[in-house]
Design brief:
The protein is about 45% helix and about 15% strand. It is of the alpha/beta class and about 290 residues long.
Length: about 290
């Protein structure tokens, strides 16, 4: 299945790395960037490298987030030489050629996957070309950094970000990659409010969310998965539509009088595909 929850784990905290796989997240982001103090960057890199062998292929996907400073990035990327690393979160991507450059460093990993983090106005304007860059599996919005770049003081779940959200959703669909990943929320106490925020992101076409606390993980996993009722309704609709096609009809009228044709059925197929993937477990395929 496509990962829904991406739990950040500070790379300089071996105690947290040791527990991370049991937190229930679909994916872990072993972080060398913002979760780590500048004085601890090299220690985080060394600690992550030494801890990678504790993770199992059957467990959550393992991603690393690297620093984008030239003096750190290449050695950070080298951590992905370990095959347990499914992908790399590249922060503050402004242009597609930045993704392509990282892939030259990662040449020994032709199967590596990339999450290109859109965190600046320039990156947002180039989202379509970034999403279409080689090996990009999905893109993530980083709204804390983008808010600073744009001088917008708004919570990540605020509706002021609606136009920005849709830009990356459209860019992802146009590039035929996975739906984008929603950013972290600093809301660690109001879990009902956090759930409402996740529901909004899911309704806007996002496929999952970055997480900074284990208490947020089950909310993200539930919110970004179709409910049993949605799956049952989608299967029912597909059965009716396939019967109609076999009878030579390209559209049907649902019980409530709604006309259903191929355009409506595409979403039902996606819901069923997600449900079927959930039953088979996580996939590391690019």
């Amino acid at each position: 299945m496509a990962a829904r929850s991406f739990l950040f784990v500070p790379g300089d905290r071996p105690d947290m790395l040791a527990k991370a796989a049991a937190r229930g997240a679909d994916a872990l982001i072993l972080d060398m960037e913002d979760a780590v103090a500048p004085s601890a960057k090299l220690d985080a890199r060394a600690t992550i490298r030494s801890q990678l062998d504790r993770f199992e292929p059957e467990g959550p996907e393992i991603w690393i987030r690297v620093n984008n400073q030239p003096e750190l990035m290449d050695e950070d990327l080298a951590v992905a030489a370990n095959p347990i690393v499914a992908g790399v979160f590249l922060p503050k991507v402004n242009r597609a050629d930045e993704v392509e450059r990282s892939l030259t460093v990662l040449a020994a990993r032709p199967d590596i996957q990339i999450d290109a983090m859109i965190e600046t106005g320039r990156g947002l304007l180039n989202a379509a070309s970034i999403a279409a860059a080689p090996h990009v599996r999905h893109i993530t919005l980083g709204l804390a950094d983008m808010g600073a770049d744009l001088n917008v003081a708004a919570d990540p779940d605020d509706t002021v970000w609606g136009p920005v959200r849709m830009q990356v959703v459209v860019a992802s669909a146009a590039a035929e990659i996975d739906p984008p990943v929603a950013p972290v929320s600093p809301n660690l106490t109001d879990l009902d409010g956090y759930r409402r925020g996740c529901e909004s992101w899911a309704a806007d076409g996002f496929g999952g969310r970055q997480v900074i606390h284990p208490a947020q993980v089950p909310i993200v996993n539930e919110t970004f998965s179709p409910s049993p009722d949605e799956v049952a309704e989608a299967r029912r609709l597909l059965d009716r539509f396939n019967t109609a096609l076999a009878q030579g009809r390209g559209a049907i009228r649902d019980e409530d009088g709604t006309m259903i044709d191929e355009a409506f059925v595409r979403r039902a197929r996606r819901i069923v595909d997600i449900a079927d993937r959930d039953e088979t477990g996580p996939s590391r395929a690019p």
